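Our working data are protein records whose layout never changes between entries. An example says more than a description, so a record of this kind follows.
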Amino acid sequence: MANFNSNQWYQLTAVSESTDLSMAGTILYDHGQGAVFFQVTNTTHPAQQWQIYPFNSSTYILRTKESGHDGYLCVAVYYNGTTPGYTVPQVRNYTLTDDSMFWQITPWGDGTFYFTNAANGTAWHLDVLSNTLMSMSSNITAPQDGQRYSFTQLGAINDKAFSTINTPLATSIPTSSTTSGSPTGTAPASATSASATNTSSSSSSKGLSSGASAAIGASIGAVALIALIIVAWVLHRRRKRPVSLADPQYLPPNFPQELQTSEVTKYEMQVPPAELQGPLAELQGNTSPVKRPDATGYNRI
């Protein structure tokens, strides 16, 4: 297995192109996407400076200085995916990628290496075409000069933005422990060992998803606990705070008020005299005189 230093920029060359051409990954110029191809070697160009970041013990994520810390090497289907040559490499923002962003770098046994990814499997290798473009090829019978890559260290990265990776499964995954030194190969990789490597990669990815879920759950729990502590502290402060009552306000006594006679104006009602009008009544002449009794009890006329 190759050992890469995650704090080093690397130049990538292919046997079919010698060292006159180097692999480049551009800026994300097209809706979060950039191109990958071979161009004339210029190791000071940021598009030719690659970081090989270990995702786990057998899987890597690649990005260039020009693609940025969120622009990862992956593949995309161009025209139709059933025709060889139409699955091509790109650099994309990590939110747009899939399992093709996870690469295995396996030695041929002669000091060179080939690339496979988790989406296409070990039956497809990253290949350099005759026109310096690239694609995934199912013609993997050795020797394949367009599939034989070499790595040369260019210098230290020393950039905090490139010290972590982001994936759709989890964010800001800490830098894995790496060892410095140039890539080394020990023995050719058989189909069986490549399959085992791919299985291990898939298993590790699933493990990461569970770990990420646990981390998210723990974070939510911590936030909830902090919120409860703050609420309890506020309530405690309110209970301890002395209640200040306002000073009583005294109203002036409400005694009955006596009217001032000098201020009272007397009014006399003017009533005009009224004369009663009535008919004169004349007594009847035949009225008998009233007899009064005398001492004898008889009436006297």
Notes: The longest strand covers residues 33-40.
